Every structure is written in C-alpha cells, then in structure tokens.
Amino acid sequence: MSVLIRLNYVDLVYPVYSVRAQSLRNMMVNLSVGGKLLKDGSDIIHVQALSRLNFTLNVGDRLGVIGHNGAGKTTLLKLVAGIYEPTRGHIEVNGRISSMIDVGLGLDPNLTGRDNIINMGRMRGFTTRQIQLQMDELIEFSDLGSFIDLPVKTFSAGMASRLVFAVSTTLDPDILLFDEWLSTGDADFIVKAKQRMDSLLDKSRGMILASHSFPMIQLMCNKLLVLDAGEQVYFGEVDGWDFNSQKPVARDVEGQMS
Amino acid sequence: MVATSIALAIVMGGIQKQSLPDILPYIMAGILCFYLPGYVLTEAPEVYMSSSNIIKNHAYPFTYYAFESVTRVFLVFLHNLVAYYLAMAILTRLAIPDWTILPALVLVYCNCLVWGTLASMVAARFRDLRFLLPFMSQIIFFMTPVFWHPNNMDGWRVWLVRVNPFYGLMEIVRSPLLGTTAPSLAWELSAASLIIGSLLWLFFFSRFRSKIPFWI
C-alpha cells in the first residue's frame, strides 16, 4: 500500500509573542540597554505544541484524532495542511489537501453564497467553469436553498459551515482534514454529512478527523491517534483503544508484550 | 487624487510662478506614479495581517498575497490613468506616452513585490510598524520631487533626489507618461533598489517564511 501521509518524529515548537515583543520600539530600547529587559525570556514564549509524532497513513486510511482541548489536534491538522512547518523531523504528504479547519476561512461576508463558492473554488485552484459545472450539486447538498443568493454575513454559523463543508467535499476531495466540523450543523445535516462521508470514502484517498465525539470516530475512522499535551499516546486501529477507560485495549498490550 | 493635485498645483504654481496648465500635468502624474512605489509603505504592511484568516487555514504560497495586492495597486493606477487623461484633455496637454513606460512598469512591479513582501513581514512581526510605515509614506511624499522639481534643489539638498529610490521609481513612470524619457539617474536608482531588495528578500523571505503564520 502506498503511503499517503508520513510523519517522522515531528516536533513543533511555536513562538508566542507578547505585546511587548511585538513592538519594534521596545526591541530598540532593549538593544540600547544591552537586552537586559529581554533576558528573562518572558516576552517570547515557546510552546511545545507537538512532540515526537511518528505515524504513517496509507491510501484509504481514515484517521481520527482525539485528545483534550489544547492537546494539539488542530495544530496537527495545520501541520499536515502545510500551514506550519515542523521544527524538527520530517513530514511527507502525497496528495492535495482539502481542509476545513476553521469555518469562515476565506469566506467573504459581503459576497453571496454563490460568489463565495466561486472564490473558495478559485482559491483551491479550479477554474470558474469547473466550479459552475458542480454548482448545482453543491448548492443542493448545502441545503441553503434561496439563501445561496444572500450575502454570507446573513448566514448562521451552521449555514456557513454547511457551505464550507459542501465546497471542501464536492470539489475534487483528495485528502480531507476536518476539525470538529459537525458541531455547528443541525441534526438533519449531520445525518446528511455522514452519508456524504461514506460516499466520499470512495472518492477521497484519505481523511483526518479531529473530534471529541467518540461514536463518530468509531463510526467513520479505521485508525486512531490519541494526543495528550502534544505527545502521541496511542496510534493504531480504532478497535485497539478502549474509549471508556482511555487506555489501549488489554489484549493489544499483551500482544505487544509477548 | 484629482483634488489633491489641483490643490498642490495652485499652491506650487503660486510659489514657482507657473501657470496652472503648465504645472498641473507634472503634479498630477507625480501623485499618480508615487502611488505605485508608495504601496510598499501604505498597503504592504497590511497584506499578511488582513489575510490572516486564510493564512491560518490554507497553505497557499505567501507570494500569492504579495502578487494579489501589488496587482490591485496597478489596477487602481490604470483606473486613475483615465482621470489623468481626462484632465489632460481638458487642459489640452495630451501627450503620447514614451515606450519606456512599459519596462518602467515592470521594474516598479518587481520592486513592489520584493520590498512589499519585506514590509509585510516586518509589519507582521512588529505591530507598531503598521502605523509607522504609512506615516513614513507621507514624509517621503514631501521629500520626493512629486510636486516640486529636482532642479530647484541645490547644495546638500540634492541628496534628497540622488539617493531616493522613491524618486527613481516614480520618475521612470512619470516622465514617459508626460511624453519624455526619464533621466538615467532614475533608472539607476530603480535598478539598484531592485537588486538590493531582491537580495534582502531572498535572505529574509526564505529564512522567516515559516514563521509568518505564528506572527499574525
């Protein structure tokens, strides 16, 4: 099986700049007094967001990522999407990323839903003609009806996420990244989205889904990554993790030990 | 743009004892052309900040944002050109642009790309530059021969012209627009600025590019 995504002992450290560190004037002042004020290192804080992540996804794998808030789920998705570059280690992605990390990414609130579809499509590298061909299917799936011709600023959060979901799954999905994408949709749409995800499994070559919903991950994913404070606690088959006790299933541990 | 140039033309015409139809084309074309390199100070600092939403969610190349904003500035320039030619027609001072305007625009475009990217990067890292740089553009506007003539400066003040890349980048477009050719000094300044800018860009952009998502 060919490799889709491979992370090789990836570390990600990211700097957080305080208001003081974001000012050139302060930095100049510090330089002129010999940098004493900066020496305590509290102005730029380095956060170890991910440490020593090491896993491989093959074509057709669907990875679920779970972990507490701040465990690094979104950071991992952004790393795979290429937004962040790893501080150490190596990451290999073979395919086109279609991400839905944050709803409202690149949505222009003043344009209509239809114009935003074209915008998002153009940003993903499609021609206007290609987008127009899939426009009807897209609008139908998003269930927005006549709202599609209204400015996006009139949409509710759920409607906006439906629009983005429709775009990212309709236009040539290859590797899909989702971050809690169902939390804002209504019940009908969740059912519809799940059906769409099933049909997508044939079209797309892989998926990473970060979620707090264990049933959803058990339903849709075959691989599981458990993160805790940026560390990889578990990676393997979904069946190998006991969601109730938050531990790997006992037989697996025995299997590894023997 | 039209109102500013008329106001400046009235004042400067009075100071320099020139009639309005003589000085207005010079000042109007000057303001029009200063707008192009002025992009580096006025609009470039906002580029990464204003698209932070997209940068944090999609891995598009960072050069895309620079191309987008510089192209927008050039489209606005073309749009203003219509107003300029209307004014020239009214003053009956229509001139056919010299052919050197084409390489000049290319040179200014490249300058805007490299220097603009640098400005966007430092402005994303140091937030106070977002206010400082647009303010600087106003000062540089007064210190550049946009509405005064370089020949009127003497003594040490000629250095305001001689080492001013904004003068070069403005003049290589303005002179052809007025139907003449730009002095070689303007071309030298523009070329030197592009070379220095490209070297700085190569170094800083390749080195700090990966940090941009953390800065914004």
Structural description of this entry:
The complex is a heterodimer of chains A (258) and B (216). Chain A has 2 domains: 1-95 and 205-258, Rossmann fold (3-Layer(aba) Sandwich), CATH 3.40.50.300; 96-173. Chain A is 35% helix and 28% strand. Chain A has 8 helices and 11 strands. Chain A has helices at residues 24-32, 73-81, 113-123, 128-142, 157-170, 187-203, 214-220, 250-257, and strands at 3-17, 44-58, 62-66, 88-93, 97-100, 175-179, 206-210, 223-228, 231-237, 241-242, 247-248. Chain A has a 6-stranded mixed sheet with strand order 5-6-7-3-8-9, sandwiched between helices. Chain A is globular. The model of chain A is unreliable at 253-258 (pLDDT under 50). Chain B is an all-alpha fold and 216 residues long. Chain B has one domain. Chain B is 75% helix and 0% strand. In chain B, helix 5 packs across helix 6. The radius of gyration of chain B is 18 Å and the shape is elongated. Classes of the chains: A alpha/beta (258), B mainly alpha (216). Chains A and B meet through strand 1 and helix 1 of A and helix 4 and helix 11 of B. Chain A: This is ABC transporter domain-containing protein. Chain A: Residues 19-254 form the ABC transporter domain. Chain A: One of its GO terms (cellular component) is membrane.
